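To: structure desk
From: M.T.
Subject: fold request, one chain
Message: Could you run this one when you get a chance? Sequence is below, nothing fancy, just the single chain.
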Amino acid sequence: MIDAGQLDNRITLQTPTATLDSAGQPIRTWATYGTANLPAKVEQVTGGETIRGRQTSAETTIVFTVRWLSGVTAQMRVSWDSRTFGIVRAADPYGDRRELRIECKEAV
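Reply: Done. Structure tokens follow.
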């Protein structure tokens, strides 16, 4: 179980929503999922550069650990410290629904 003192950062989970613009075309927007400013532990797992074609891009993998929250999927994203991270996977590491580890990637 995660110690409350380790939840020293605040994140916001966001889920995609579809709306229509004035021409009737779908636009993807983001809405807050659950509670904004969710207490979280933040761990930077890896960082590096990848080369795709002729472009180099920096990529960072971060794991956010929060108290158990159901419904978090890879279609969602995390907003933290003015940065946005795409969710790769969300898992209950011990199977006891006490905490949720959200692995994310930030592409720069």
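Reply (cont.): DSSP finds no helices and seven strands in the chain. Let me know if you need anything else for the meeting.
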